[in-house]
Design brief:
Number of helices: 13
Structural class: alpha/beta
Largest sheet: 8 strands, mixed
Oligomer: single chain
Radius of gyration: 27 Å
Order of helices and strands: HEHEHEHEHEHEHEHEHEHEHHHEEEEE
Distance between the termini: 107 Å
Shape: elongated
CATH superfamily of the largest domain: Response regulator
Number of strands: 15
Strand order of the largest sheet: 7-6-8-9-10-13-14-15
CATH architecture of the largest domain: 3-Layer(aba) Sandwich
Strand content: 15-25%
Helix content: 40-55%
Length: about 400
């Protein structure tokens, strides 16, 4: 009997062990760990970016627990210190650590380097603060949550038409593809609204004096009294810049520029007398937070308690990037770069985060944004910016401020 009792006891204990421990082992096996690479920009921005990303990661994991979702998300932090070669090395490290999604911050060389290396590994970049237009065509797996520069050209086109400027001449540089893409977008949008591009004046550092004179001679026929000038430049010029802006046929025209071109105006105003006679209008991205947004309020309260200052509107992009990336993985059921790219816009369309609604256009760029329209006012030797209108890109018309 003792032997039989012992066997029974052992059997019961074995069954209890199976019942007690098997579900845990099964559940553990079903949990999918997804690593998200958080690529911070510099040592100065580390604290705020890590804080916002960590807050989102914690909330996402709690969301998964509350809804019995078999996912856990883990951040992997790296700082590229604005160094493209270092960025490439860090992407390699991400790959070795099974990181599938990179939240790559900022634009220019570091984002380019991040993309160059990550596409070999089947990674996806969700860039909270990027605003570069040519990524939309060259690097299709970059998703940008920041309204990009190219939207400024759409705002300029709309402003021209609404102010009655139905003809334009475009000045653009020939050595940098970035403004080239902006010009194409501007032309498409402007012509859809009934505007006509009379001419496109292309110039750059590589031109010699003869080419410059030939370009300037075209202005006499290209620029008419009711023609506005579109100037989407991003860098200042020296002699050629002065020649263009002091050309007699341009002095009485209204110039529309992207926000980048305003630096040219302010930098060269004192040295270029003709510039004082040019009326310049440009849009600036409105980063004022939506105080009525409860998600912004909740996150900003935490942010303010930590750093003693409020977030701007798009400071919450990193928080939203984490949430959107996690929700996309959850919806697709597993990480795959192709399904991720296809699904992300569908998730973003129905997601309103700390930075507002995150809907994307067909290129994977932030769809809606607000822009303040400014006009330069010169009083003596001082330059003032006067707001003359506000453009909400989700609405059909610009709200103009009555000018004195």
């Amino acid at each position: 009997m003792d032997r039989e009792n012992t066997i029974i006891v052992v059997a019961v204990l074995f069954i209890l062990a199976v019942v007690m421990f098997s579900p845990l082992e099964s559940e553990s096996e079903e949990i999918k760990l997804v690593k998200i690479g958080v690529m911070t920009y510099s040592e100065k921005t580390n604290a705020s970016e890590v804080f916002l990303a960590a807050q989102a990661i914690n909330e996402v994991n709690q969301y998964c627990l509350n809804h019995s979702l078999p996912y856990r998300f883990q951040p992997v932090y790296r700082c590229n210190n604005m160094d493209p070669p270092q960025t490439i090395q860090l992407v390699d490290e991400y790959h070795e650590n099974n990181v599938s999604i990179i939240l790559g911050f900022r634009w220019s060389g570091t984002l380019d380097a991040c993309d160059y290396q990550s596409k070999h590994y089947g990674m996806v970049i969700v860039s909270p603060y990027a605003s570069t237009s040519f990524h939309r065509d060259i690097y299709p797996h970059i998703i940008q949550l920041m309204p990009i520069d190219i939207q400024e050209t759409q705002v300029v086109a709309r402003a021209m038409v609404e102010l009655g400027f139905m003809e334009t001449v475009v000045f653009t540089e020939n050595y940098n593809m970035h403004p080239g893409y902006m010009v194409d977008e501007f032309r498409r949008y402007y012509e859809e609204m009934g505007g006509e591009v009379n001419d496109t004046i292309v110039y750059g550092f590589s031109q010699n004096l003869a080419q410059i004179n030939e370009t300037l001679s075209r202005l006499e026929n290209a620029v008419h009294p009711n023609t506005a000038i579109f100037y989407p430049e991003t860098v200042p010029y020296t002699q050629y810049f002065h020649e263009i802006h002091n050309h007699q046929s341009l002095l009485n025209h209204t110039w529309f520029s992207t926000s980048y071109a305003k630096s040219n105006y302010t930098a060269e105003l004192s040295a270029s007398l003709g510039l004082k006679e040019i009326e310049l209008i440009h849009p600036d991205l409105d980063t004022t937070p939506d105080q009525s947004n409860p998600k912004y309020q909740a996150l900003n309260n935490l942010y303010y308690a930590e750093f003693g200052e409020n977030m701007t509107r798009y400071k919450g992009n990193i928080y939203d990037a984490v949430w959107l990336s996690a929700l996309t993985v959850i919806q697709t059921g597993e990480y795959n770069n192709l399904t991720f790219i296809e699904t992300f816009p569908k998730v973003a369309q129905n997601y309103t985060g700390a930075s507002g609604n995150c809907s994307l256009d067909q290129y994977g760029d932030r769809l809606n944004a607000g822009y303040n329209l400014y006009k330069y006012v010169l009083r003596g030797e001082d330059i003032y910016l006067k707001e003359i209108g506000y453009c909400d890109t989700s609405k059909p018309d610009i709200d103009w401020i009555e000018l004195e």
